[in-house]
Amino acid sequence: MADSKNPSVTQAQAEEAVRTLLRWAGEDPAREGLLDTPRRVAEAYGDWFKGYNDDPREYLARTFEEVAGYDEMIVLRDIEYESHCEHHMAPIIGRVHVGYVPNGRVVGISKLARVVEAYARRFQVQEKMTAQIADVIQDVLQPLGVGVVVEGSHECMTTRGIHKRGVSMVTSRMRGSFHDDARTRAEFLRFIEVGHARR
């Protein structure tokens, strides 16, 4: 895998693994249409799983305190993501909504999207990814509260197994005031209006 955290696995070994899978599926890796497939797949993995090379905490390290005393909820909604299920290596595609109540400092909104990207571009379980995003924001920024809602369409369910399309999963993680105060939680959920209400 390109830029892998595991230097003991070479690009050549990754490509040979793809050739093995092609042969197992009944294909001939030596035929013209598949000659470059192992290289392309290895390069795609380098892109799909580049989150292993990122430290989400670093994205949240630079904050701003000159916000004229702003202490209301900040919400970034509809952060699109692409991930892969760690059980079947199938895509998970969806969106993330993040909200927090600052405690004297805020972070650039693009950094919230980068945190989502860093966790999404790893093998994932949606529940775990939801918790990871909320927990790192709470731990690094120390806001009064954090709310994260993740929507995901799981290709491991739509392209194999039960073959059910049009199904999405919603997970949430509430920390601090989002967990303890029903009004804060309700305000956040109104802002993001998960599902079809806002579309």
From TrEMBL:
PANTHER family: GTP CYCLOHYDROLASE 1, GTP CYCLOHYDROLASE I
Keyword Oxidoreductase in record: no
Subunit structure: Homopolymer.
InterPro entries xrefs: GTP-CH-I_C/QueF, GTP-CH-I_N, GTP_CycHdrlase_I, GTP_CycHdrlase_I_CS, GTP_CycHdrlase_I_dom
Stored PROSITE patterns: GTP_CYCLOHYDROL_1_1, GTP_CYCLOHYDROL_1_2
Keywords: GTP-binding, Hydrolase, Metal-binding, Nucleotide-binding, One-carbon metabolism, Zinc
Keyword Protease listed: no
SUPFAM superfamilies recorded: Tetrahydrobiopterin biosynthesis enzymes-like (SSF55620)
Family from the record: Belongs to the GTP cyclohydrolase I family.
Entry's EC annotation: 3.5.4.16
Amino acids binding Zn(2+): C85, H88, C156
Gene field: folE
Segments forming domain GTP cyclohydrolase I: 15-192
Coiled coil: none
Designated name of the protein: GTP cyclohydrolase 1
Lineage, broadest ranks: Bacteria, Pseudomonadati, Pseudomonadota, Gammaproteobacteria, Lysobacterales
Pathway linked to the protein: Cofactor biosynthesis; 7,8-dihydroneopterin triphosphate biosynthesis; 7,8-dihydroneopterin triphosphate from GTP: step 1/1
Chemical reaction(s) catalysed: GTP + H2O = 7,8-dihydroneopterin 3'-triphosphate + formate + H(+)
